[in-house]
Every structure is written in structure tokens, then in C-alpha cells.
Amino acid sequence: MTENTAAEPVTADFWFDPLCPWAWMTSRWMLEVEKVRPVRVRWHVMSLAVLNEPKMDELPEEYREGLRNAWGPVRVCVAAEQEHGGEVLGSLYTALGVRFHHRKLPQNRETIADALTSVGLPAELADVADSDRYDVRLRASHKEGIDLVGQDVGTPVIAVPGADGRRIAFFGPVVTPAPKGEAAARLWDGTLMVAGTPGFYEIKRTRDVGPQFDDSED
């Protein structure tokens, strides 16, 4: 395995919505990338609810209901960031993701409060789920990420400095299960290669399996 030995690792900015299982898979891959490439992830919040606001009337009712419920977790993440610093986002995202995606717990106040206390944050932050107190900051964080890639993508968005110093940003990659070790490194290298190619926009194929979670994270 190639070890991460660089003194000054590259910062990979990662925008997530904790409800998205595919963003969760990508985030677990990025934690592997940190081990094998000189990369450090800096976490940011984006919102599927905000992203889909312009087309809510066109969406199936079941999906619209899910988006209405999506406001709570991102609001709490932004509140935690604002009140306790951006460094808490990574651990809070992991705590929420394990509960939402692995344990299949309800995406409600009780689950969010449990995730908060598990990483040393006050359970009272869960009250923000039903408040618009931090929505200006939430929308600003979302806009920062989505402006890098355009409106017709989802979560996650990743941005890194390119070889010429200009920022490279992309949606995805969408992958399951999350690659580990040298496989994670190869995917990272390849993703940067295609994303950094001028005029490159898309590679895609139909998904024939759902997210495959690592039970060791439960």
C-alpha cells in the first residue's frame, strides 16, 4: 500500500448531505484516500432540499416528502459547524451516516441527538432541525459547492487544487462498495486525471446494485 507521507497534504473540499447513501459511500472512500495519498478532507454541507427547490412540483410525492425531511440533518450540521467549528463536521457526519445508512434508524430528532452526543456535541443542537436560524449559512455553504459544478448534479461535490493551481471540482464518484487501500488510491488518481482534463464533463453507466455498506462501521 502506498503510504501518505507528504508534509503538506492537498485539501479536498467535500460537500455532503447526510441523507444521501451514495454521498456516504464516496465519503468512506475519501477516508481511505487520506491513508494512501497526501490528501486531507475538509467537510462542508450541501442540501438536497435546497438543490431540488426549483423543481419540487415535478417530483413524485414520496420524493418530495423525503426532501421535506431532509432539512433537519443539514440544519443541525451547519449549526454544529457555526457553534463548534468546522472540524466537528467529519465526526458528526460519520455518526449520522452510521445511524441513517447502516443501522436504518429514523431520521428524527432522537437519532440526531444521539449522534451529536456520541461525538461530544450538545444534544440540544438537534432542536435546530425545525428552525430556519442557520438557513442563510446553509444556503451559502450549498451555493459554494454547487457553483463549482453546476445545478444539474447532486451530492457529493469534491474540489481540489489542480496541477496548475486552479480548482478542479466534480460530482461523485458514485461507487459501491467504497474501495480501500491501493484500489482507493487508483480511483483517486484516475478521478483527478479525468476531472482535470479540459473539456471533460461526464462518464456514466446504469447502476445495477445499491449501496453496499461496510458492517465494520456499525
Walk me through the structure.
The protein starts with 9 loop residues before the first strand and ends in a 23-residue tail after the last helix. By secondary structure, it is an alpha+beta fold. It is built from 8 helices and 4 strands, in the order βαβααααααββα. α4 (71-84) packs antiparallel against α5. It has a 4-stranded mixed sheet, with helices on both faces. The protein has one domain (10-196): Glutaredoxin, CATH 3.40.30. It has helices at 21-36, 48-51, 61-69, 71-84, 89-102, 109-118, 135-149, 181-195, and strands at residues 10-16, 39-45, 157-161, 167-171. β3 and β4 (167-171) form a beta hairpin. It is 44% helix and 11% strand. This is Disulfide bond formation protein DsbA. It comes from Streptomyces triticirhizae. Pfam families: Rv2466c-like. InterPro entries: Rv2466c-like, Thioredoxin-like_sf.
- Helical segment tally? 8
Indicate the proportion of strand residues: 5-15%
At CATH's second level, what is the architecture? 3-Layer(aba) Sandwich
At CATH level 3, the topology is Glutaredoxin
What is this entry, summarized?
With 218 residues, this protein is of the alpha+beta class. It has eight helices and four strands. The longest helix has 16 residues, at 21-36.
